[in-house]
Amino acid sequence: MHDLIVSPFLGEYLVLRPGDARGVKISGERYRELRDAPAVLPWLAEVSRKVWNAEPGVVLIRPESALGYGKASYELNLGCNYDCEHCYLGLKKFDSLDWAKRERLLESIRDAGVLWLQLTGGEPMIDRLFGAVYTRAHELGLMIEILTNGSRLADRKILDLLATHQPSRMIVSVYGASQETYDRLTRRKGSFKTFMGALSAARSAGIRLEFSLIITNHNAHEKEMMTDLARSFGRVSGEYGNISPTIYGGAESLPSQSPAFLTTRKPFTGCEAGHTSFHVNPYGRASICKIGREPSVDLLTEGSKGLVRLGQIADGLLRRQGGCTGCALQGTCGTCMPLVQLYRKASAPLALYCQHQEPREEVAP
To answer: Structural domain boundaries of the chain?
Structure first.
């Protein structure tokens, strides 16, 4: 296994250490110097000692990619061991690919130029091939981020794997600060006790944790307690109170919205989804993001070359359509068009996603 990664990233060049969020930017000239050198160069050894207080060891030099993607998310499985009402996945069906196809998928992600890979689900750690996926992604020179409910962090095999090859980020969702609230939200008796035991096990193993606070009408009263709990084990990296429809446009998640935590989104002025990043579902289909899932590209049949179509797909999906076309408030709207389409399918109240809180006439373009 390598100790350092030298890689192109969105027109720049970085030196990174797996399991550490810090990196060093280098010039293209220095990247090519390292790529063509038969051994570790003295200046790289000095950088490693200065930044990470470690010898460079084995260095993996990643090649440049004509596609130029930098980030991707990979949904290992839509299944979960919780049954949270607010979940945007809806059906949460357990289904995924065999190992041979997953390995091809990871190689296609690498070939697209992806440096940062987010492993998500469902709950990624309950997937039968989580360990194999994580190990192979690490071998391919991907910097790994994990989104998890944290319930499996006390599993010895998983803990040993993560302690040996730490992820760059481990982001754990927090659903409550008491047994009654947490178990009610997850609809799994005993889940809070398991959660707390898992956090203690991770801390003992030296796993660095970050936390996302998920605020719903079931746990809003414990928001401050949830913050304190998270800070006792790591740092709070995000707080999420806006509940979305399911990926199928279902409305079953929306009743869990806490009105007090329905926040105003920042004005949507475009994003790089489909251009510098993409999402892959459990069946190997790549889309612009977790929300805009269709049209998609089958990475198993087309490989990374099929991703050249994603930019055009993104431009089409993000273009204002229907009642949003020509809206006078477009410049201050905080909801992207793929998310608007899901809210529409769910027949959601306008107040959840639109500045026009009451039915209105469409504004002509």
So the answer is: 4-61, 71-312
How many other C-beta atoms can be found within 10 angstroms of the C-beta atom of residue 225? 15
Confidence of residue 226 (pLDDT cuts 50, 70, 90): very high
CB-CB neighbours of 276 under 10 Å: 19
> For 363, which DSSP code?
P
Q: What angle do CA 275, 278, 283 make, to 5 degrees?
A: 145
Return the CA Rg of the chain.
22
| DSSP assignment string, 323-352 | GGTT-TTGGG--S-HHHHHHHHHTT--GGG
Residues making up the chain, counted from first to last: 365
Beta-sheet pairing, 277-280 with 71-75: parallel
Q: Does the pLDDT value for residue 201 go beyond 50?
A: yes
The Cα-based distances of 117 to 76, 143, 281, 312 in angstroms read 12, 6, 13, 22
| Torsion sign (Cα): 219, 225, 227, 232 | negative
Q: How many CA atoms lie within 13 A of 290 on its CB side?
A: 16
Residue 113 DSSP symbol: T
Mean pLDDT calculated for residue range 319-340: 89
* CA-closest candidate to residue 310, choices 323, 301, 298, 322: 298
Does the domain at 71-312 match CATH 3.20.20.70? Answer given as yes
pLDDT score for 340: 95
What digits encode the pLDDT tens for the residues 72-110?
999 999 999 999 999 999 888 888 999 999 999 999 999
